[in-house]
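Obj: model holo form, ligand = S-adenosylmethionine.
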Amino acid sequence: MGLAFSPGDDWPGLVGGAVGPLVLGPLAEAGAGLWARELVLSHVPVLRDEVVRVLAPSGARVILDCTVGSGGHAAALLDAAGPEAVLVGLDRDPEALERAGRQLAPYGHRVFLLRTNFARLGEALARLGVGRVDRVLFDLGVSSPQIDDPGRGFGYRGEGVLDMRMDPDETTTAYHLVNGLTEPELAQILRDYGEERWAGRIARAIVRAREREPIVTTTELAEIVKEAIPAPARRHGGHPARRTFQALRIAVNRELEALAQGLDQAFARLAPSGRLAVIAFHSLEDRIVKERFRLWEGACTCPPGLPACACGRVAEGRVLTRKPVRPSPAELAANPRARSAKLRAIERLAAPRCEDGSGARAADEPGAVLGPERGE
Ligand SMILES: C[S@@+](CC[C@H](N)C(=O)[O-])C[C@H]1O[C@@H](n2cnc3c(N)ncnc32)[C@H](O)[C@@H]1O
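Output (holo structure tokens):
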């Protein structure tokens, strides 16, 4: 499918679409048999109502969903935004875009889907002729259809080849890392990206096992990890291979680098009073989000009590979630995969302002739109 817009008019550069969501990128080659798998693979959007509440898209003109996945959040945001809004949906996984295309078909020319890594969202928006965006969502990590399809190699329960690429055109897979990295390199990845206490033991066990023959499947790897962890430690903290699989997935997809780049590019393009929300699923992601928010809040470094700010930090944003928003017990009962989700949101100030050195922070001011996290 070709491009169907041209820059211009008073619209922020975006002129119309085709009939149905416009899908850009090499979708034609998307996997055969997708429809059959779809019957059993679906994704429940996490914290959907809270995302709509904090992004408050009513009146927004351009919504950017950086991780459109199966389109669940996108549909909810479009419903809440009103008929003037258009949604740009990005995903690096062509199968996800295909699902999003079907889910968002009823919104017709209001939806523009683009296959790209959100680390390059600036380029993507430029390609669409979009200057500013009013609302942005990042719903990080992998979706249920990705985890539940053994062929993608993300899960430790079903048997599949160790792949874990969100973008099938990338060349490095989990197989390459597991069979190619040195023992110290493996241990470092498990420590840095999995916060795995038994990183050294697991790395040693992997190297010993692959000396016999390459480790090919997810279940082989899960078994090696399980055996490497002392028996008493296997009994708590979820599946023993969970952290190893998380670490490898993050490394294969270079997720943390992409997040830092994507956040910076999205905030730079956020319109005055525009809002950006992120759902993170582990502390490494959440830490990057918190650091960025603190930076954008202007986080004054002056000692308290100075009559005027001397550090010159400028606040560009106001954090809307004093504490991260967590799923309700009802959501957790219906969707246990939401258990580690944390939602944070920030609003771009209409005009940047200098912090006054009093130690007061925007997030402490009255008017934070969502209160403390639940369930803690
Ligand atoms: C948790 S799912 C999103 C689900 C979606 N919000 C929904 O309602 O269906 C995350 C999606 O983001 C995509 N993704 C993760 N990292 C990405 C990146 N750096 N660039 C583009 N897409 C990414 C994944 O392929 C996956 O489809």
